[in-house]
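ok so i was messing around last nite and threw this chain in just to see what happens. nothing serious, just curious
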Amino acid sequence: MSSAITSYIDGRITIIPDLCNGKPTIRGKRITVQTILEFLSAGESSEEILKQYPSLEREDIAACLEFASLMMANKFVLKDIA
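result:
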């Protein structure tokens, strides 16, 4: 597996193959973009998330939303299996 680090949105979102199974994380921490998006979709406010994760910054949460938006701009093809 490649050990290259990929980063997006001024380095706020990182993909490190050996960290969190290669899922996008926030600044190389063990906090995934998915986790933050799940909190937001459950109705948590940015302030509540920042209290739960004091190492995060408000800009990290905004970067998660921006990253998700960028991912939705991609084209996806679904294939039937079996």
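not much to say yet. The domain at 6-72 is CATH 1.10.10.10 (Arc Repressor Mutant, subunit A).
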